[in-house]
Amino acid sequence: MTTIYGLKNCDTCKKATRWLDRFGIAYTFVDYRDNKPAPETLLEWAGKAGGFAALINKSSTTWRQLPDNRKSPESDAEWKLLLREYPQLIKRPLVITGDAVLSQGFSDNGFKARFNIA
């Protein structure tokens, strides 16, 4: 089973779910504003993504509006606190498939490769 984490009003998340619908791929969508990821989940995602900084969409308005001292957390605890407070900072969509592989973002070619669609 595939789980898509994102924001229900995010255009990129909508494109990703429409793509999955078009190719008949079953998924569950989780809006992480409504269902904030647990600290343990954030730690797991960071491990799979290559660190907390790799989870962040640094071109987002939310990131740009953060005070400078919040943009460089010095511990996992500070990162988890930041992402629980501002889940919209996580690059989206965040996709986890049944094999526990994590990927972020959406592109037609990227999803074709990810889901073995020729």
Automatic annotation (TrEMBL):
Alphabetized SUPFAM superfamilies for the sequence: Thioredoxin-like
InterPro entries: Arsenate_reductase-like, Thioredoxin-like_sf, Tscrpt_reg_Spx/MgsR
Listed name of the protein: Arsenate reductase
Record's signal peptide: none
Family of the protein in this entry: Belongs to the ArsC family.
Any one Pfam family match given in the protein's UniProt record, by short name: ArsC
Organism ancestry: Bacteria, Pseudomonadati, Pseudomonadota, Gammaproteobacteria, Lysobacterales
